[in-house]
Design goal:
- This protein has 21 helices and eleven strands.
- The protein has about 500 residues and is an alpha+beta fold.
- It has one domain: Cytochrome P450 (Cytochrome p450, Orthogonal Bundle).
- The strands form four sheets. Strands 1-2-7-4 form a four-stranded mixed beta sheet.
- The longest helix has about 45 residues.
- It is globular.
- The mean pLDDT is about 90.
- One of its GO terms (biological process) is lipid metabolic process.
- It comes from Phascolarctos cinereus.
- Keywords: Endoplasmic reticulum, Heme, Iron, Membrane, Metal-binding, Monooxygenase, Oxidoreductase.
């Protein structure tokens, strides 16, 4: 039987434990605040020569950059603060926003690693592939992947891209008779997924007609959305909070589905290559795809990619080739819809090369100079990847004498660079003649960076440009494009450049 004395003893001990816990928690909080203060003071010192907008000691500039206003805000600040300014994501975390071509050239000439605080979010899905690797591992993977983007491998992809584009255009023809404008970005996204499945796996998917027809397609679609959402939610940047949330659980499940599919395809293809006698025997039966090349790639020392590395590179190819290319195509169609005179000139050039478009080949793509100029101008106005990050490992002295100390991070803001009036005259005007041969000689080497530059430039840029040409050519032969002026797009920066409210166009079937 418990006595009043023993109860009092128990109550006293519980009270003591609570007091100790409170003091420990208070101590940890004070320590954390002290760490944030020390870090903030260091950052203030490091960036004292880079003026920028005032920031709050706790939440930095967060409230000044709402999602729908972030890109125009960046463009206006780039005009106000020459070359670069520090943007505070919190009171103790900032990124130097860089949008000057000379600054870009200097940073991209080095081999600083990708920003860990940004690219770490991708690892649960795409693993440690070319996009997130650094140092000797990155160099080894780049050497092994380079043959997969040789022109001999890319040539047969043109027909596959055209097949996928025609499926989308057939859908659009049926929808063009409805009394509503068409939101195109979702259709384009499924089309690029369909195309990539053919180019990466030689798999004929039905995802454009039924997006749930393939578990891998659905997983890729889900992961793209979940990762974009995580990037925008500061609380989800903490791994513990995220992985215990419903969104974190859905991300794990989708990544597991994607990895299971990729692993199965890799094992089946490895057995097929062994049974049929390698690449030469396979190439006599069908085109070689991305996975074929990766499975047979060898370094000079005879090393090949491990299964886990293979999966990472295939998933990286699917991620980078799907969302970024879909963004580029969607904004390209919008840009030409809003500039009918350039749309018509492209159409006339395309007709002169392709006729009715029943056949489109690799050779045709090099005969479209005006169309290519328009594609580049759309990529300038609407770069699919608005910014890329680097962690600076060695102190940098910029051409104007300002110094960025090692240990800091930068955001190479491609959107702000492309809209910088110090770099581009009348940057908001769509003018494809910026990319005419005579004007290219006057352009700074790092003024136009839709695919980055330097040793870590986009390895798939030819693949992306080819697909943009194929889709644009086939689209303009069938449709006249007009914007829905009641639903103008709102560009927002997620993992790639998207529109908050979609991209709505009117499609008029040409006869």
């Amino acid at each position: 039987m418990n006595s009043p004395l023993s109860f009092a003893w128990f109550q006293g001990n519980v009270s003591g434990l609570l007091q100790v816990s409170f003091l420990l928690g208070l101590g940890l909080l004070v320590l954390k605040v002290a760490q944030m203060y020390v870090r903030r003071q260091r950052l203030l010192g490091d960036f004292q020569n880079f003026p920028g907008p005032p920031s709050h000691w706790l939440y930095g500039n967060t409230l000044e950059f709402p999602v729908e206003e972030e890109l125009p805000k960046m463009a206006s600040l780039a005009e106000k603060f020459p070359c670069a300014f520090p943007r505070w994501l919190t009171g103790s975390w900032n990124l130097l926003q860089v949008y000057d071509p000379e600054y870009m050239k200097l940073i991209l000439s080095k081999r600083d690693p990708k920003s860990h605080d940004v690219y770490k979010f991708l690892i649960p899905w795409i693993g440690k592939g070319l996009l997130v690797l650094n140092g000797s591992d990155w160099f080894r993977h780049r050497r092994l992947l380079t043959p997969a983007f040789h022109s001999d491998i890319l040539k047969p992809y043109v027909g596959l891209m055209a097949d996928s584009a025609r499926v989308m255009l057939d859908k659009w023809e049926k929808l063009s008779y409805q009394p509503l404008s068409l939101e195109i970005s979702e259709h384009v996204s499924l089309m690029t997924l369909d195309s990539l499945m053919k180019c990466a796996f030689s798999h004929q998917s039905n995802c454009q007609m039924d997006r749930h027809s393939n578990l891998y397609i659905q997983a890729v679609h889900d992961l793209s959305y979940l990762l974009s959402s995580r990037m925008r939610n500061a609380f989800y940047h903490n791994d513990v909070l995220y992985w215990f949330s419903s969104a974190g659980r859905r991300t794990r499940e989708a990544a597991q589905r994607a990895h299971q599919y990729t692993d199965q395809v890799i094992q089946r293809r490895r057995q097929q290559l062994e049974q049929e006698g390698g690449l030469e025997a396979i190439s006599r039966k069908r085109h070689l795809d991305f996975l074929d090349i990766l499975l047979c790639a060898r370094t000079e020392g005879g090393d090949s990619l491990l299964d886990e590395e293979l999966r990472a590179e295939v998933d990286t190819f699917m991620f980078e080739g799907h969302d970024t290319t879909a963004s580029g195509i969607s904004w390209l169609l919008y840009a030409l819809a809003t500039h009918p005179e350039h749309q018509q000139k492209c159409r006339e050039e395309i007709r002169g090369v392709l006729g009715d478009g029943t056949s489109i080949t690799w050779d045709h793509l090099g005969q479209l100079p005006y169309t290519t100029m328009c594609i580049k101008e759309a990529l300038r106005l609407y770069p699919p990847v608005p910014s890329i990050g680097r962690d600076i490992k060695e102190t940098i002295t910029f051409p104007d004498g300002r110094i960025l100390r090692a240990g800091n991070s930068v955001s190479l803001h491609i959107y702000a660079l492309h809209h910088n009036p110090r770099v581009w005259e009348n940057p908001e005007v769509f003018n494809p003649f910026r990319f005419s041969p005579e004007n290219l000689t006057l352009q700074h080497s790092h003024a136009f960076l839709p695919f980055s530059a330097g040793s870590r430039n986009c390895i798939g840029q030819k693949f992306a440009m080819n697909e943009m040409k194929v889709v644009l050519a086939l689209t303009l032969l069938l449709f006249e494009l007009k914007p829905d002026t009641m639903k103008p797009p709102l560009p927002i920066s997620k993992l790639v450049l998207k529109s908050k409210n979609g991209i709505h166009l009117w499609l008029k079937r040409l006869h």
